[in-house]
Amino acid sequence: MSSENKRQSAEALSDIAKEIRRDIIRMLLEAGSGHSGGPLGITDVFAALYFGGIMNYDPSDPDWSERDRFVLSAGHMCPVLYATLANAGFFAKDELMTLRKYNTRLQGHPGRDMGLPGIETSSGSLGQGISIAVGMAMSDKLLEHSKRKVFAMTGDGELQEGSVWEAAMAAAHFKLDNFCWIIDNNDCQIDGRLREVMDVYPIDDKCRSFGFDTLIVDGHDFDELYKAFDLFLANLNNGSGKPTAIIAKTYMGKGVSFMEDRFEWHGKPPNAEQADIALNELT
Amino acid sequence: MQEYTLLGSKPTRHGFGEGLVELGERYDNVVVLGGDITGSVMTSLFKKRFPDRFFSIGIAEQNATTIAAGLALSGKIPFFASYGAFCALRNADQLRISCCYNEANVKIGGGHSGISVGPDGATHQVLEEVAYLRTLPHMTLVVPADFQQTRQATIAVGEMTGPAYIRFGRSPVPMFVKEDTPFELGKALVMKEGSDVALIACGALVWESMLAAEELAKQGIGARVINLHTIKPFDVESVVQAARDCGAIVTAEEHQVHAGLGGAVAEVCAKNAPVPIEFVGVKDSFGGSGDPIELMRNFGLTWKEIYASALQAIKRRDNGSTGYHAVRDVAVYREGSNVEELSQS
Question: Could you tell me which residues come within 8 angstroms of residue A235 by beta carbon, excluding any fewer than 6 positions away?
Fold first, then answer.
């Protein structure tokens, strides 16, 4: 499916994002464990990527050789990826309720061995997914001379892993203009604010100095997200030789009032009562 | 059975470098990643022959390992080589998650292994990686013994699917494998038949085991020499057969005595055929600077230690220490007896 000419309105994306968020709440309630805040916070970016005509994919042929690839380096955010893939038609939405259960294809962190359609790689040990994505982008651009796109999403706490910067260095060195790095900048990690745990700021200057065309956007504003992805598409189509970094400012727990911007919601699920409130807020 | 004789000497890293070029000629999707020391680990040969399929990643082994996984998930057959100290342990988590858990078709060449690296000293003499790598699900681990076998093993790991690690060294070691000597991953090469004691070795210690077997033969002791080049998947059958036939085993490796080849042999024997085992290897210490031969001698990694260990294993067996072989009709070793006495008994 070439979805590039099917860019949807911000209103349409907003509805899709709400549905994905509702799925996340239902999945986590059923699972009884998992990460709530991060996935809810980055949902709008997923809606834009998968439903805004940015990525080419075919849910009926997940291994389609001409597809664009998305790597979730921050593997713990997988509920949003699973919910997005199910909404995009990669597998039935019923399966979302198996999250984190024995023998599920929806492992607590993505496991490629389980064969869930749309999962390009195992991930969860922070810092690795971005290097995998760089390897994929090298294969596409340098060995196959294709314009297929590769996206990697890291968290912002993940930037504390040194090997992330090895990957960034390589992306610029190999002039991977087919590579788009999305940084979910919600400024929360398990132990607190980034500046308290280990200050990684300024992120944009770091990315620029590593050779990325870099843009900071409101990760909940679809028009800004489109603008950022357009920058990436321009880099790719003009053969700029520059990889793109999109720093998406987001609020952890977005859409659920009692979770918003509260890092204690990084790694826990809602209980039944909280889920009810959340689902009401997300209608 | 093929007779093995000394054919000269050459570093095993040359076998890796030449094997890679052959793979490159056979398969368009073989690509190589460099980690700045491409001349040392001989990936420079591939770089020269196939510049479009060689990528320099710099001194960044974690990134190189993981980029290799990305290339593998894109249908390429990536080889990344560096010193084993840096491409087996610094990147341990990348190997575990991005390569093995992903079942990615990544091949790692671990050069400058063991203390025979020589003057560079302990930081560059990796002696622990076999212990780690053999515990990784899906991993194939090969420790070839000489130039030709390293070449064969390099081609074999390139032609199999799944993550694999090949261990080789810097300094020249005796050559004895010929081009037409069979090589099969997971199938040990029996280099000498014998049923009094089994000498099971990998890497540079294989030829030392052959020398030890020669000395043992002079005492009327028939040693079976097993070149156990593939540590994983492990050739259980050959090792159990050796334990049953000989009742006494010596393992020899240029690696810590703990949890490497010797550990693997001990695990298999404990379960299937408990016999006395003696372990030749580095005894829980780091290496150091020196001439390679001098180091091998000082760390007890020569035929002499293998020979003495064989006598010890036989003695333990004949004393019935495991009860597996209560009575043996060969070489009864007595405390304090020397080699001459032994040969007469």
Answer: A177, A213, A242, A243, A244
Facing B74 at nearest CB: one of A124, A128, A139: A139
Which tens digits make up the pLDDT trace of A64-75? 999 999 999 999
> What's the CA gap between B36 and B63, in Å, rounded?
13
CATH of the domain at B201: 3.40.50.920
Contacts of A119 in chain B (CB under 8 A): none
Residue B164 forms part of a structural domain: yes
Q: Tens digits of per-residue pLDDT, B262-301?
A: 999 999 999 999 999 999 999 999 999 999 999 999 999 9
ipTM score of complex: 0.94
Q: Which domains does chain A have, with CATH numbers?
A: 10-281 (3.40.50.970)
pTM value? 0.93
- Chain B residue at shortest CA distance from A69: B74
Q: What is the CATH number of the domain that holds B90?
A: 3.40.50.970
Same domain, B105 and B248: no
Is there a single domain that holds both residue B120 and residue B232?
no
Q: How close A260 gets to chain B, by Cα (Å)?
A: 32
Range of the domain at B324: 189-344
Please tell me whether residues B31 and B153 are part of one structural domain: yes
In degrees and rounded to multiples of 5, residue B193 shows phi and psi of: -85, 155
Count of CB pairs separated by less than 8 Å, A with B: 104
Chain A residue numbers with beta carbons less than 8 Å from the beta carbon of B136 are none
B17 token code pair: 């470098």
Q: Where are the beta strands (DSSP E) in chain B?
A: 9-11, 30-34, 54-56, 77-83, 107-111, 140-142, 164-167, 172-174, 189-192, 197-201, 223-227, 230-232, 249-256, 277-282
- Partner residue facing B63 (CB), from A139, A144, A170: A170
Q: For residue A166, what is the nearest residue in chain B, using CA coordinates? A: B63
Per-residue pLDDT of chain A (283 residues; tens, 9 = 90+): 444 458 899 999 999 999 999 999 999 999 999 999 999 999 999 999 999 999 999 999 999 999 999 999 999 999 999 999 999 999 999 999 999 999 999 999 999 999 999 999 999 999 999 999 999 999 999 999 999 999 999 999 999 999 999 999 999 999 999 999 999 999 999 999 999 999 999 999 999 999 999 999 999 999 999 999 999 999 999 999 999 999 999 999 999 999 999 888 988 999 999 999 999 999 9
- Cα(B172)–Cα(B7) distance, rounded to whole angstroms? 12
Distance spanning both ends of chain B, measured CA to CA: 30
